[in-house]
Amino acid sequence: MAEAQGQEAAQDPFRGRMNDPSAAARLVGLCGDDMEFYLYIRDGLVEEVRYYSNGCANTRACGRETARRAQGRALMDVLAISPREVIDALPELTAGGRHCAILAVSTLHRAVADYLLMP
Question: Could you tell me the pTM of the whole model?
C-alpha cells in the first residue's frame, strides 16, 4: 500500500496537502468526492499548488490538471481557468466524469477567493 502511494506521488507532483498555505479550500461534489486545494502565493503568483482528494480516478485527474494549470500563474489568470479547459485537456475523461472538472476548478477558485478576501 505504501509503495503504491509512493508511486502515485511520483507520477503526480501536485497531489498532497500543504502545511501553512497562503490559501486553502475544500468542497464536496454531488457524487460525494471531496477536493482540497492548497496555494502558496507570493507577489500575486501561485508559487506552489497542491490538491488532495480521496475520490475516483476522474476526480484525481481533474485535480492534477487544474493544479498544473494554476502553477506559476497570476491570481487573476488562475480565476480564468475553466472546467472546459480541464475537460478538453483530459480526453480520457468520460461524460459521466465531467462534473469532476467542475469540482476541481470550483475548489481552486474558492481557495483564490479565500486569499483575496483575507483582511
Answer: 0.90
The per-residue pLDDT for range 56-89, each reduced to its tens digit, is 999 999 999 999 999 999 999 999 999 999 999 9
In tens, the pLDDT along 6-40 reads: 445 558 999 999 999 999 999 999 899 999 999 99
Q: What is the CATH number of the domain that holds 69?
A: 3.90.1010.10
CA distance 91 to 16: 24
What is the domain range of residue 13? 2-116
Give the DSSP H or E segment for 35. Answer: strand 34-42
Q: Structurally, how many domains does the chain consist of?
A: 1
